[in-house]
Every structure is written in structure tokens, then in C-alpha cells.
Design brief:
- With 339 residues, the chain is mostly helical.
- The protein folds into three domains: 98 residues, Annexin V, domain 1; 125 residues, Flagellar motor switch protein FliG, alpha-alpha superhelical domain (Annexin V, domain 1), CATH 1.10.220; 84 residues, Flagellar motor switch protein FliG, alpha-alpha superhelical domain (Annexin V, domain 1, Orthogonal Bundle), CATH 1.10.220.
- The chain is 65% helix and 1% strand.
- It has 20 helices and two strands.
Amino acid sequence: MASTATLSGLRKAAMLMVQLGKEDSVRLMSHLRETEVEELTAEIARLGTVDREQADQVLEEFHNMATTYRYTGHQGGLEYARDLLEAALGPEAAKVIMERLAVSMTDVPFNFLTHADPRQVLSYVQHEHPQIIALVLAHMPAALASAILSGLAPDLQADVAHRIAVMDRTSPEIIRQVEAALERKLSSVLQPSELSRVGGLQPLVEIINRTDRGTERLILEGLEGRDPELAEEVRRRMFMFEDITLLEDRAVQLVLRQVEMTDLATALKGVPDAVRDKVTRNLSERARENLLEEIELLGPVRLRLVEEAQAKIVQVIRSLEQSGQIEIRRSGDEDEYVA
């Protein structure tokens, strides 16, 4: 199931506006500042077709509207954004904002890859130099980049992940050359006119967070062999299932209320005692007994199923963190106190 856990608030707002329809969206926009209207319009223009499952989740977050408006296959894009602006601000103001928007969007390298089929991109880049692959993935949305990274050979995954993490600024000429090659295979390219900051640890963490647990493990092990300090920093910024021990008890209890008991039992198969103890001591006595009994009754479980169950729980944790309901204490983080 597609998740909204990694979507920004701006992206969710854009998805909501597209689903509400022009009339209601116009009324909402009329209450925003011009800078907010411009930011939201830019996001709507980049949105394209709205994923149904994500759209439903966004509506659930805005539950006060969920019973009135449902996803019906709406699509964003420049035309929709222009119509909203004209209705909300008038033709002249809309024209000015759309002109600024057109300039800003043409400065986004590889913007056309937002709608690319990851299989097509993979078939092209998998035989390229790892630095080229890293450059392309660093410009992609995390969900698309993770699908391509997962399709690479394990050794190549680690090499590409390392290059994304240490990448900083890239010559626009190199970007144009890579874009031109992709144009022949995939779509029209955008021509950036200035240095583009890409890569770095956070884009890599976001990409890894969207991969399956097997790919995640291979990438981290590969990074460990190449650059132990970098691998440790990536781990510190990520949240893996075993890191549930870093959560406060109140946070664990909140997570457990949103997790199916079957998934929890499967996820705890074969984990360290510290992880199992952290979970069980945050359950009532009866729930703890039921959980331990279910773990015992499961018997041997395929590793793939265990990893899938753990990934579901991690997704709940990341979603709760993004919404501000819990705080994840990364290893090495220490709070400072003042008297």
C-alpha cells in the first residue's frame, strides 16, 4: 500500500486541493498569502496524477472532509494550477505568478523523471557508470529512486549509495549531458542554468527508507565496507525496527495501539531480547501473554515475512514522528538541560 508518511505537508495540501475541486480550492486559496498561494500552486503543478491510496490517506488526515469529498481520479498540472489562480486572484495576478512558476520549474533538473516508469529508467542506467546512476537518482523523488536502487546488483547498490551520500555540487554541463541521454530514451529534458545542489546524506536516507528491508541491509553492509563512518552516520539518521528500543515508553504504547497483533508477533520473531522486552513491557499483562503465545504458535517464519511485518511497524513509527505525535531519539543524540 502506498504511504503518505514521507510526503511533505505542502504535497499533502496540494493533493487535498486537487481532490476538493476548483470551486472549493479557490475559496481556500483566497484566504492564503500570495507567497503561500505561489508555493501551493507550484506543488499542484508538479503533482500530476494523484495516487488513489495516498489520496485516501490524505483525506483521512483531514477527516472532517472525508465524508464529503472522495478521490475521483482528479489530476493536477499547470492548467489546473492556472485555473485556480485565475479564479482566486484574477487573470493579471495569475499571469504574474504563472510566469514566475514557469521559470522556477525549468530550473529543476530531471523534473520529467517524476512521471517516468522506474523499469524504463532502470533498464537504461543499470549499465552506466555508478556516478551517473547516483546523479540521476539524487534528482528523483525518493519513491522512484528507491525502486530503481532496489533493482541494481548488490555491489552496485552500495557503490551508488556511497556516491549519493558524498555528492555535493554538480556541474550543470554534466547534468545537461546526462539529461540529453535520458531524453532520447525517456522524455524531454529541462536545462538548468546554474549549479544544482544534489545528493548528500538526507536524500540517501530517504531513498533507503523507501526500499525493502533486504535491500536496506545490503546497502548498509556495502557502505560499512567502503566507509564505516559514513555507514554509521546513515544508520544514525535512519530508524530501523531494532531502534524501537530508543523510543520512550509512551511512544511505544502509541505505536502498539496502531499495529495489528499478528504483524507484531511476526515482527518480533528472531529479534534481540532487548527489542522484545521493550515491546512486551509496554503491553498489559493479558496482551503480553497473548502476544508471547502467538509468537510461539507461529513457529518458523520466512525471513521475508518478518521483514515485511517489521517494515509495516517502522512505517507507523515514521508516520507518527512526522505528525509530531512521537519523537525518535537517534542514537548519539543527547538532550541538553538548563537550570
